[in-house]
Amino acid sequence: DQQVKQNSPSLSVQEGRISILNCDYTNSMFDYFLWYKKYPAEGPTFLISISSIKDKNEDGRFTVFLNKSAKHLSLHIVPSQPGDSAVYFCAARGGGTSYGKLTFGQGTILTVHP
Amino acid sequence: DSGVTQTPKHLITATGQRVTLRCSPRSGDLSVYWYQQSLDQGLQFLIQYYNGEERAKGNILERFSAQQFPDLHSELNLSSLELGDSALYFCASSVVGSGLNEQFFGPGTRLTVL
Predict the structure, then answer these.
(1) How close A59 comes to chain B (CA, Å)?
(2) Per-residue pLDDT at A96
(3) Following CA atoms B1, B5, B9, B15 in sequence, which dihedral angle do they give, to the nearest 10 degrees?
(4) Residue A98: what are its φ and ψ, rounded to 5°?
(5) Beta bridge partners of B50
(6) pLDDT tens sequence across B5-14
(7) Are B43 and A101 an interchain contact pair (Cβ–Cβ within 8 Å)?
(8) Are the C-beta atoms of A74 and A19 separated by less than 8 Å?
(9) CA distance B40 to A76
(10) Which H or E run includes A12?
(11) How far apart are CA B25 and CA B52, in angstroms?
(12) Is B84 helix (H, G, I), strand (E, B) or coil?
C-alpha cells in the first residue's frame, strides 16, 4: 500500500526554468510533509517542509505547496540550476503516536540541463 | 557531511549469514531511525529509537533487530539473510523524536547478499 506516491520517475528541465515535482498521498492522518534531495552515494538531505495547517512554505528558490483537499503537494524550484540535478523524495509524517516515522515516496530524478 | 556516520560502507555476504550495521548519530541527537532502500524503491522506515528506547516500528522483519546504546550509537542486526535483503540501509538522527524537525541521514551501508 503506497501511501505516498511520486508518479513521475523523472523530470528534465532547462537551467533557469521552473522545476515542479509532484507528490500525492492517501492517508489523511499525515500532518507534516518534507522534501529531501539525494545525490548518488550520499544519504538524503533535508530541503524544505510544510505543516498540514499551511498551504505554502518558501525557502529561497524552493517553495512547497500543499493542497489538502486534493491530498497533493508540490515542490517548485525557481530558477533551476544544474546543481539541483538529483533524486527528490517526498515524505510524510503520520501524526499521533507515529512519532518520527516518515513515509517516503519512490523519488523523482530531476535533471537540469545547462 | 550530515554528521551521521555509518559503518561499514559496503558489505558483501552470503545467504543465511548474520551482519551488524552501525550508526553514530550527530552530536546531541537523541533519536535514531533506520530505513531500507531496495532497488527502485523509496526509503522504507524500519525502526526508531529515542534515548535508548524503541519509539516506533515500521515493517521490520522478525529476522531484523536493532538497539540503541547508552552512548546513543545504534546497531541494526540482520540475520538469516536472504537475497532480497540486498539493499541500501540508511540511518538518520534528529534532536527529538517527534519527526517535526528534520532527520539527518548518514551515507548508508550497501548490503549485498550473494
Answers:
(1) 15
(2) 60
(3) -140
(4) -75, -10
(5) B31, B53
(6) 999 999 999 9
(7) no
(8) no
(9) 24
(10) strand A10-14
(11) 12
(12) helix
Amino acid at residue number A55: D
Q: How far is CA B6 from the centre of its chain?
A: 9
CB contact A98 to B (< 8 Å):
yes
Residue B113, beta-bridge partner list: B13
Of A34, A49, A100, the CB nearest to B33: A100
What 3-state class would DSSP assign to B106? coil
Give the 3-state DSSP-derived string for A38-103, with helices as H, strands as E and coil as C: ECCCCCCEEEEEEECCCCEEEECCEEEEEECCCCEEEEEECCCCHHHCEEEEEEEECCHHHCCCEE
For B43-93, what is each residue's pLDDT tens digit?
899 999 999 999 888 889 999 999 999 999 999 999 999 999 999 999 999
Query: Which chain A residues are Cβ-neighbours of B42 within 8 angstroms?
Result: 4, 6, 89, 104-107
